[in-house]
Design brief:
The chain is mainly alpha-helical. Helices cover 65% and strands 0% of the residues. It contains 6 helices and no strands. The radius of gyration is 20 Å and the shape is globular. The N and C termini lie far apart (51 Å). About 4% of the residues have low confidence.
Length: 112
């Protein structure tokens, strides 16, 4: 689980950097950390953000965890970035499409 959490964080941080995403200097928690916490909640805690926030804080993944209210506000503000992340990852997660030409269809039916 530790490796997967780190991979999710790196993926989020790299995507935000590639998009030239700006974060306020006063933020206690980066947008990549907020996104990582939300994704970890979906993967391991059945969508429970409170338990995930507690786990991430206790395991020292995120030393400056936001309050429940602030976390939810930040999460809703990042909704479009989640869509960008999912659409950019979609191509790498899908199976490659097979090109079926006229020759392969005749061979598969045994007519040759």
């Amino acid at each position: 689980m530790d490796t997967q959490i780190l991979v999710v964080f790196c993926l989020c941080a790299d995507m935000l950097q590639a998009l030239h995403h700006y974060e306020d200097a006063q933020c206690q928690m980066s947008d990549a950390e907020v996104m990582t916490t939300a994704i970890v909640a979906m993967l391991y805690f059945k969508g429970n953000f409170r338990l995930t926030s507690q786990y991430m804080y206790e395991q020292r993944y995120i030393p400056n965890m936001l309050s429940r209210s602030r976390f939810n506000r930040r999460l809703h503000r990042l909704a479009e970035l989640f869509l960008t992340l999912f659409f950019s990852c979609r191509g790498s997660l899908e199976e490659p499409q097979r090109k079926i030409g006229p020759m392969s269809s005749t061979l598969s039916h045994g007519s040759v």
